[in-house]
Every structure is written in C-alpha cells, then in structure tokens.
Design brief:
Blueprint lengths: L17 H5 L2 H4 L4 H21 L4 H14 L13 H14 L7 H13 L21 H21 L10 H10 L9 H16 L7 H4 L2 H16 L16 H24 L9 H11 L1
Helix pairs in contact: 3-4, 3-5, 3-6, 4-5, 5-6, 5-7, 6-7, 8-9, 8-11, 9-11, 11-12
Length: about 300
C-alpha cells in the first residue's frame, strides 16, 4: 500500500546484488570477513555519534549510515585498507546533510570528528575526552588538511556510487502504516506511544545489522517487520488476517526480517565485548596494523 501522492519507485532503494554481498573490495584486499564486519560496525557507530553531536535529524543520520554501508559494497566498492572508516563516515554525514534542508559546514564536521577520535569511546553517547582541549582542537593548518581529506573522500564516495545517493528510510512509512492499521490514534495513549517508539527503535537498530538489512530489503519491508515484532512485544492486537500482504511483503520475507531484527542486539553486544572502547581500527594505518598482527 502506497501513501497518497507517492509512487512505488519513490519508496524503493537500489538493493545489493548477490555478487556484491559475496565479494567486497576489502576482502579482495585481504581483510578477514569478521574484521571487515567489525570495522563497518565501528564506522556506523561513529556516524551515529557524529550525527547526534551535529544535531542532525535521525532520518538524515540513517541516510548517511546507508551511504556509508553502500560505499564498501562489492568488488567495485571502497576498501577499508584504502579508505578508512572514519573518513568515509565523515564524508557520508557531510553528503547526507548537504542533500537535506539542514546542511552542516565542513568545519563543523571536521571539529566533531576530531572530538570523537580523541574521546575514550566512539559510541553514540561518547564520554568526554580527557581535560586536554589540545587533543581535539583543530588549528587552522589541521583544519585545512582535514577539510581537503573530507572533500576528497566525498568525491570518491560519489564516484563509487555513480552519484546515486538516493536513500529512502522506513521511519515515516512505519508511522503511516501504524495509522493505516488503526493502532496509532489521533489522540496518543501510553501504549501507542510505546508502540511507535519501539518500532522506530527497531528501525534504528537495523542500521547496524550484520545482514545489511537496509541494502538487502526495501524500506516497506523493514517497516512492516518492525511493526510486526513490536506489536507482539507490547501486546497490541493487529488484524487477524495476513495484513502485511497489503504492504507488498510476503510471509517468508517477513519471517526472515523478524529473526534478523531479533538477532541484532546480541550481535552488537558481542561486538562491543570484542572491541571495548576505541580499539577497533577505523583508519587505514590502524587496519593495516591490525591485519599485520593477525598475520
């Protein structure tokens, strides 16, 4: 079911092919799959944290995270041994914000990433850096170097993606579907607020999925899966028939997405235990050093 005034094409994203999922430029450069997944997760954490510190709306942050994920996709994509996750994260945030109604300056982006890279943790709500402003202060010379790298990485991302930066995120779709199903009343209740909040929470969680759900499934399917899972958890009764088919989602796809969403939290917890603090490499030098130690 398509909201009034929208078409199916306007609600769809380009999805990854089997070849792109099977082989990445990073793996061809000798990066073990487990390390590549960890670096991607760390880069997504930085992107989320930077978006929060830059006060960018969550929808734009999500678009940046999808652009970041797309960049490293397939043998024709970028490699973490040539384009560090931190630099790609910064350029992805810059691109997504630039395409929105609320852009950010290069100085703001460079300042935030300098701050994040000096903080004890790069998670979404980072602890403050040590009481040493010089550890994250960018001099004019450092800023111009960082700005040049940011703009260079922006060019690399745009060229790699063939300038296709369209990203439809499922958040607004999910709220529309909840209204269509009659469980999001005009006058909200505590239950409906909880339902909407948890649904959006699952959609944000899916951005970190090791199954790369945002580039393997359309936003309509993600919205339906988040609603189905949340309604079960908060015990909100949905139509007894196969209502998901109204939104062009079949039972098999819905089942896969529900299982994938349920597995995200455990996988993220394991990644945080494997890489406490800032130990996961997000720069080219750090990745090459990590691979050298593995060898």
């Amino acid at each position: 079911m398509v909201p009034e005034g929208e078409t199916l094409s306007s609600l769809s994203n380009p999805l990854a092919t089997v070849e792109q999922l099977s082989n990445s430029s990073s793996s061809l450069d000798g990066v073990p799959p487990s390390l590549e997944s960890s670096i991607r997760f760390a880069g997504l954490q930085i992107t989320q944290a930077a978006g929060i510190l830059l006060r960018i709306p969550q929808e734009i942050i999500a678009q940046a995270m999808v652009i970041f994920t797309r960049f490293y996709l397939g043998p024709e994509g970028g490699s973490v041994r040539k384009n560090g996750a931190k630099d790609v994260s910064a350029a992805s945030i810059y691109i997504a914000a630039k395409l929105s109604a609320d852009p950010r300056t290069t100085r703001s982006v460079c300042n935030v990433y300098a701050y994040l890279m000096s903080a004890p943790t790069r998670q979404a709500f980072p602890n403050p850096p040590p009481h040493d402003p010089e550890s994250y202060f960018l001099s004019e010379g450092s800023y111009h170097s960082a700005r040049a790298l940011l703009l260079q990485t922006e060019t690399i991302i745009l060229r790699t993606l063939s300038f296709n930066t369209k990203v439809v995120v499922p958040h607004h779709l999910a709220l529309t579907y909840l209204q269509t199903l009659g469980v999001l009343p005009t006058v909200p209740s505590s239950t409906s607020r909880n339902l909407a909040s948890r649904t959006l929470g699952y959609l944000n969680l899916a951005l970190f999925s090791p199954q790369l759900l945002y580039i393997t499934h359309q936003p309509t399917s993600l919205a339906v899966a988040a609603i189905y899972l949340t309604a079960r958890e908060v015990e909100v009764k949905l139509p007894s028939n196969e209502w998901w088919e109204v939104f062009d989602v079949d039972r098999e796809e819905l089942g896969f997405l529900v299982v994938a969403l349920q597995s995200c939290e455990g996988w993220i917890r394991a990644e945080k235990e494997r890489w406490p603090g800032t130990s996961c490499p997000v720069t080219v030098d750090g990745v090459n050093l990590e691979i050298k130690d593995i060898d």
